[in-house]
UniProtKB/TrEMBL annotation:
GO terms for biological process: translation. Belongs to the universal ribosomal protein uL23 family. GO terms for molecular function: rRNA binding; structural constituent of ribosome. Binds to 23S rRNA. Keywords: Chloroplast, Plastid, Ribonucleoprotein, Ribosomal protein, RNA-binding, rRNA-binding. The keyword Plastid applies. Part of the 50S ribosomal subunit. It is found in: Plastid, Chloroplast. This is Large ribosomal subunit protein uL23c. Its main location: plastid. The lineage of its organism: Eukaryota, Viridiplantae, Streptophyta, Embryophyta, Tracheophyta. It comes from Sinopodophyllum hexandrum (Himalayan may apple). Coiled coil: none annotated. GO terms for cellular component: chloroplast; ribonucleoprotein complex; ribosome.
């Protein structure tokens, strides 16, 4: 499944790991139910809540032209107590 792109490791996401919440960037066209079913099947965990927000693309200058990167979606997945998933791969550079 190409729904989940990569895990997000920021100060906030590391703090949320203590509450059994995992943060990752997903494809902007994916729905919440698709991501939930994929996480439950692939990792064998029980998801109790999901929060998402859409992050805007950033402006980029290419010579005299202004362009922008694509927007993306970030999901915060809360698991049932007693379940955990290994950290997802970091973004490739």
């Amino acid at each position: 499944m190409d729904g989940i792109k990569y895990a997000v490791f920021t100060d906030k996401s590391i703090r949320l790991l203590g509450n059994n919440q995992y943060t990752s960037n997903v494809e902007s066209g994916s729905t919440r139910t698709e991501i939930k079913h994929w996480v439950e099947l692939f990792f064998g965990v029980k998801v109790i809540a999901m929060n998402s927000h859409r992050l805007p693309g950033k402006s980029r200058r290419m010579g005299p032209l202004m362009g922008h990167t694509m927007h993306y979606r970030r999901m915060i997945i809360t698991l049932k107590p007693g379940y955990s998933i290994p950290p997802l791969r970091k973004k490739r550079t």
